[in-house]
Amino acid sequence: MAAIFSSSLFTSSPPSSSPLLLPYRRPPLSRVRASLLQDNHQKVILNDSLPSKTPLHHATTRDSVISSSPTALEKRIVKFEQSINIFLTDSVIKILDTLYHDRHYARFFVLETIARVPYFAFMSVLHMYESFGWWRRADYLKVHFAESWNEMHHLLIMEELGGNAWWFDRFLAQHIAIFYYIMTVLMYAVSPRMAYHFSECVESHAFDTYDKFIKVQGEELKNMPAPEVAVNYYTGDDLYLFDEFQTSRVPKSRRPKIENLYDVFVNIRDDEAEHCKTMKACQTHGNLRSPHSYAEDDDGSVCTLEAGCEGIVDCIKKSVTSNPAKVNILVLSDAKMAGQAGSAMLVEYSIRGLPFGLDVTLLRPCK
């Protein structure tokens, strides 16, 4: 790739040696919570046992500033979207309360079957956007996959506890999941903010459900063994995906201890709290980043790909009016200077109209 760029871009004044292509690091995106109109009963209240969260970065981007000051019309739209989400969530909760009043594991099985669905839907839509060149933010796909991976293990735990023993429970959960998937795909295509808020409502209910269960059944759970799948997931050697979905934490900062079934449910509850925080952050467009991206940024191994859009209408509009993707590449004429790229004086070259709508900015050190 270096040869292609060097031969096509510097034919008149080639660099003194073969250029080395390195990613150009931009300042990390900030973590700003979406400015949303939340009723008090919709706020997620975390248990005091949960450790406090400190955002990895505190810088404020232009997009974040804009998002934090919505117009009157935007506020009305957000209020309308959230009222629909709250109505739908409350309706499902009433059904579950009626059917699973005293059948906890079956209820948890249904909840975890449903909880995986939105992440599948998000990834489906984002993959479609990528196919059309509308989306180039891999962090969203990484985090959403890690979230689905976490929910899958919650589901496996409930199955090992016998939550899927009845045919009716499996039938209900699976058919709700199909309907939920279709609904979420359509909702996410129209308004990602609304889809993320709906998922936040679902995760908030899951957190409350597990929290109440722990408080009532806690002493009994402490005398019961932990399922093997839970021990393997929470204490295994490879916890990359476990760290990946916890976007408000530094990787490796949470390492659960699983000694009994009580510990399992405490960690499942805490997982749901992390999902709530991630879904809340996603409601501010462009606000999500993989926790591992910050560490990778520090060693200069990530290429910043910034194409993004809010819903299919915005994607189509941007694809017509502007280049859908932008790639920033750092070109150094000497491999020895790679470690000094941060302090090198750079000359910028911009080449537009490349295939696939790429807008490439090339930087090389001045001599």
From TrEMBL:
One of its GO terms (cellular component) is membrane. Keywords: Electron transport, Iron, Membrane, Metal-binding, Oxidoreductase, Respiratory chain, Transmembrane, Transmembrane helix, Transport. Pfam families: AOX (PF01786). It catalyses: 2 a ubiquinol + O2 = 2 a ubiquinone + 2 H2O. Signal peptide: none annotated. One of its GO terms (biological process) is alternative respiration. One of its GO terms (molecular function) is alternative oxidase activity. It is an enzyme of class 1 (oxidoreductase). It is found in: Membrane. Its EC number is 1.10.3.11. Binds 2 iron ions per subunit. Its cofactor is Fe cation. Its main location: membrane. Belongs to the alternative oxidase family. This is Ubiquinol oxidase.
